[in-house]
Design goal:
alpha+beta, Arc Repressor Mutant, subunit A, 2 domains, 3-stranded antiparallel β-sheet, 4 helices, 3 strands
Length: 101
Amino acid sequence: MDDDRALGGAPTPPMFEEDRSGSEWVNPPSWAQGLEPILVTPEEAARLLGISRSRVFELLATGELPSLTIGRSRRIPLDLLVAWVRDRVNGQSENHPGSER
């Protein structure tokens, strides 16, 4: 018998579970349907950028990559990560005019 039922209540489904293989929820609540994450972990940022986790932590340590700390966790706002990449692409294009894509 389920612990919740033993206490006289119906089982409580989890609000959502995080799929650790990616940043999508396995069972998102109805209010979260279609929402994208606004913060990513350094590991997720590394995967998105195609660089190593160590390199992301180097960029965080120097302050080159913007982030915030929540408790003991480091998170990178996704919009700032995209802007950071865009700034670097624009900077490279200005330095190398023939490299525009």
